[in-house]
Specification:
heterodimer, A: about 400 residues, alpha+beta, Cytochrome p450, 5-stranded mixed sheet, 3-stranded antiparallel sheet, 12 strands, B: alpha/beta, FAD/NAD(P)-binding domain, Enolase-like, domain 1, 6-stranded antiparallel sheet, about 20% helix, about 30% strand, iron (chain A), oxidoreductase (chain A)
């Protein structure tokens, strides 16, 4: 019997990794053969997310990474400079102000499902909305979507985890990030001469980031801004369709979409694992000493279903009084785009639940995308009777 | 809809600001919010409360979709419970008793009229004028069936007869009682000078309304006596309102009595950078008024004077325990002694089974700090201790809980969110472990005899949780540029208490407390 974590990583683990995570939690801090320590219980994950002795710094690159791969104080500086054009303190209302546009795009996408009885909700809804919104925010032309979508998919396959094929993956990663960098670099140069009200133009106008820093931040936000939200939306419809009682309640009371999305982030999180941390010194967690230099993987999806943290963890419930989950991580690397993802998921799922009549899954489980880290269906084919007009 | 944020828990993720930007606002890490936002913000607020990663936003239960959780704790106590004190600790204890399944009669005695309100905003968004003083009422986190006797201070406690005596002559019988009468502002000692128009203290919503009006009138200068947290926060508001302000502090720097000299020096620089005329190692000797009884100037210990229209006396607080004189409890200026389970201790050192204490007046032994008795005037302590007291009041001795929370405290001033965990004055060394004091973004760890006892963050609140766990584990102080903590000597807690022991037979030997004529100096 192989270690449960290796079975999580194997393609066969993709449709339902949760029983494997339950096995994994029996050993909260589990050393793998490649020297990685996998942490799977809520308290231990939270403590490591807040532990300054755990580094996020990527040392294996030939260039300075974006802030997701940096430690304070560099991380804090770059994240704050990007945040100026995304949220508080400088732009507190920016994301909330996008709600009408999110709604308009979503309405259009669902309108397009009318007149037939089958659709792939990943291709037709879950993917196009986040892409449209991140393009608008960043200032990336939406018509280039075909180019960077393929690159983003390739890039996600290079995330790992695992140490064995790391060199190979790094090579692939360098190639695809090179393409991304050149694409964003050209865009930054264009924006410098023809600025808009987008984030790239804002970061350029501030004059506090180098061109490379803006490019890397742009690449990060472009990829993270949609590759994760697709899965949140797709996992959401999948979960609703598997739980008719939940679907009926959300249909009857659309306000329930707010706790529903929080519960999705706990129950079927788009980001299952954080696989890029390293212990800077020997540290003891859950009674296990992780030696300095060891890679650490935080199994967020396992932690959010830890029965020591949340009662009845394998049940999807709209009534959890205080839903604290690891869906967006925690600590200084807490998901930058969380508010955008939340609103997008709330709006899209409300629209789908409210307008698709008699929706039912065609394949359960659906086919999954390969990554165990950013986990979600490749397609979500749904049959339905009709689409309620707006 | 009422809103309160548990800033003890808040780590500054800012999700509420994104989702309800009309209600919540944030600087680098300082959160300011409207405690009583209009109903048209309801949808936004519900999204914000759901999104909070640490679930620190509390709303009226009627606004929530879910019925508040109930977790009956099994043990049934059916007697009559009286809570003396209707502010944060008292109200939270009442809610906790009902949540945990207490169904007997419950009475809350409160000195102030009206519903309990939140005090931290009074020295912040209320003084700036962003929130009206009457809009600080605490949300009703659950329905609480209780008799509220407000506007009636308690004047005595008869432990033997199990009665609380009220100012209007009424007697309220109890089977178990919780004492949570809190503190009041320490007034300027000269009553005539304190009565001058323009001389303020700040503790209640009424105080805040008066001070807000005085600041809004555009005084020539504001004088603040004392640079503790309250005085420093008021000075910060004055600068935000572009009012000239002088702060006079007896100690060598602001915040020294809470955070020691190393961080105090940083706080002093922060004040001066923001244009505060800060006078340390100085005291005010007299407040002078004009013929009309208006405050005009203050005389200082260095011989100087300060011309100002408003003086704020921020010299700390006095515990509301006078009403317990003669009760036989170990109560005095230092607080009401209790065990770690919030049960009051009498003068003989005996634990009482039916009298409990919580909040600012509770003086309890903390095992992490060598079992020293401490009182903590912190929002988070009031909430945590009220929960423990409520639980223990309805539990048998096999199921009681100790109050072992590591203290957490916050303040926002001059755009910086200051948080602390542990007891920073319980230290002999300080080391900056993250960030830099020059940038005003750092973490400082405190140690006593090599063991970590506290940490203070300036705009680095996300790390606090780590330091808390290190303190709980008695971890060593991390290496680095270790400095002397320069904390004030801890008060010997019994210095002001003189007791005599009488009687010879073990059944008769008892302690009585001698009260010093003229009261106690501090």
């Amino acid at each position: 019997m192989t270690c449960p974590f290796q079975r999580v990583l194997a393609p066969s683990g993709r449709p339902d990794p949760y029983p494997l995570y339950a096995e994994l939690r029996a050993t909260p801090v589990a050393r793998q053969d490649d020297g990685t320590y996998v942490v799977s219980t809520y308290q231990e994950i939270v403590s490591l997310l807040h532990d300054p002795r755990v580094s996020s710094r990527r040392r294996d690159l030939d260039r300075t990474p974006a802030f997701i791969g940096l430690d304070p104080p560099e991380h804090d500086r770059l994240r704050r400079l990007a945040m100026r054009h995304f949220g508080p303190p400088r732009s507190p209302g920016r994301i909330d102000a996008l709600r009408p546009q999110m709604q308009a795009v979503t309405t259009g996408l669902v309108d397009a499902l009318a007149g037939r009885n089958r659709a792939d909700l990943v291709e037709e809804v879950a993917y196009p909305l986040p892409v449209a919104m991140i393009c608008r925010l960043l200032g990336v032309p939406a018509e280039d979507e075909g180019r960077f979508h393929a690159w983003a998919d390739e890039l996600i396959e290079t995330l790992g985890p695992g140490e064995e094929d790391r060199a190979e993956r790094e090579q692939a990663r360098r190639e695809v990030t090179g393409r991304f960098d050149r694409y964003l670099g050209d865009l930054v140069d264009a924006r410098r001469h023809d600025p808009g009200d987008d984030m790239l133009s804002g970061m350029i106008a501030d004059g506090e980031m180098t061109r490379d820093e803006i490019v890397r931040t742009g690449v990060l936000l472009l990829i993270a801004g949609h590759e994760t939200t697709i899965n949140l939306i797709a996992n959401g419809m999948l979960t609703f369709l598997r739980n008719p009682g939940v679907l009926a309640r959300v249909q009857a009371d659309p306000g329930l979409i707010v706790p529903a999305v929080e519960e999705l982030l706990r129950f079927e999180p788009p980001v299952q694992l954080i696989s890029s941390r390293v212990a800077l010194e020997d540290l003891t967690v859950g009674g296990v000493t992780i030696p300095a230099g060891s890679p650490i993987t935080l199994a967020l999806a396992a932690g959010s279903r830890d029965p020591a943290h949340v009662p009845d963890p394998d049940r999807f419930s709209l009534d959890r009084p205080r839903n604290e989950h690891l869906g967006f991580g925690g600590g200084v690397h807490y998901c930058f785009g969380a508010p955008l993802a939340r609103l997008e998921a709330q709006i899209v799922l409300t629209e789908l639940v409210g307008r698709l009549r008699g929706p039912r899954l065609v394949d359960d489980p659906p086919p999954y995308r390969p990554s165990p880290i950013l986990r979600g269906p490749r397609h979500l084919v749904v049959d339905y009777d009709d689409v309620t007009p707006r | 809809m009422r809103v309160v944020v548990d800033l003890t828990r808040c780590q500054g993720y800012g999700q509420c600001v994104f989702l309800a930007p009309e209600v919540f606002g944030m600087g680098e890490e300082v959160l300011r919010y409207d405690l009583d936002p209009p109903d048209d913000q309801r949808d936004h607020i519900l999204r914000a409360a759901a999104a909070c990663p640490v679930q620190a936003i509390h709303l009226d239960w009627t606004a929530m979709r879910a019925v508040p959780e109930s977790r009956p704790c099994g043990v049934r106590f059916e007697g009559r419970i009286v809570i003396v004190g209707g502010s944060l600790a008292g109200a939270r204890a009442a809610a906790a008793l009902r949540r945990d399944g207490f169904t007997g009669p419950l009475t809350v005695v409160g000195e102030e009229d009206g519903e309990p309100y939140d005090r931290p905003p009074l020295s912040k968004q209320v003084l700036t004028g962003h929130v009206a003083p009457e809009h600080t009422k605490l949300p009703r986190v659950r329905p609480v069936e209780a008799e509220w006797l407000t506007g009636t201070p308690a004047t005595g406690l008869d432990v033997a007869a199990k009665k609380v005596l009220l100012a209007d002559g009424r007697e309220v019988p109890f089977d178990r009682v919780l004492l949570a009468t809190g503190t009041r502002a320490r007034p300027w000692p000269d009553a005539a000078e304190a009565a001058l128009t323009g001389v303020h203290t700040l503790r209640s919503a009424k105080d805040a309304a008066g001070l807000r009006a005085a600041l809004a009138a555009g005084p020539r200068r504001v004088l603040i006596l004392g640079a503790g947290f309250t005085g420093s926060e008021i000075a910060s508001v004055c600068r935000e309102l572009d009012l000239p302000v002088t702060v006079v502090e007896r100690g060598p720097a602001p915040l020294v009595s809470a955070l020691g000299g190393v961080i105090g020096d940083v706080a002093a620089e922060l004040q001066r950078e923001h244009g505060v005329d800060l006078r340390c190692d100085t005291t005010v000797t007299a407040l002078e008024g004009d013929a009309g009884g208006r405050f005009r100037r203050a005389h200082l210990s260095d011989g100087g004077t300060v011309e100002a229209d408003v003086a704020v006396v921020a010299l700390g607080s006095i515990r509301n325990v006078e009403w317990l004189r003669g009760s036989g409890l170990a109560a005095g200026v230092w607080g009401v002694a209790c065990d770690a389970g919030c049960r009051a201790v009498d003068l003989n050192g005996l634990v009482l089974d039916d009298v409990f204490v919580a909040g600012d007046i509770a003086r309890f032994p903390h095992p992490l700090y060598q079992y020293q008795f401490m009182t903590l005037e912190h929002w988070g302590n009031a909430v945590a201790q009220a929960e423990i007291a409520a639980h223990n009041m309805i539990s048998d001795q096999a199921h009681r809980w100790p109050h072992l929370a590591v203290p957490v405290f916050w303040s926002s001033q001059f755009g910086v969110n200051i948080k602390s965990v542990g007891v920073p004055t319980f230290a002999d060394q300080v080391v900056v472990t993250q960030g830099s004091t020059a940038e005003r973004r750092f973490v400082a760890a405190y140690g006593y005899q090599g063991r970590m006892t506290a940490a203070v963050t300036f705009d680095q609140g996300m790390w606090l949780e780590y330091y808390q766990s290190r303190i709980e584990q008695a971890a060593p102080l991390p290496p680095g540029d270790v400095q002397s903590a320069r904390v004030p000597e801890r008060l010997s807690p019994s210095a002001e208490a003189t007791v005599v022991v009488t009687g010879h037979d073990p059944a008769e030997r008892r302690v009585s407390l001698l009260h010093t004529p003229g009261g106690v100096t501090s």
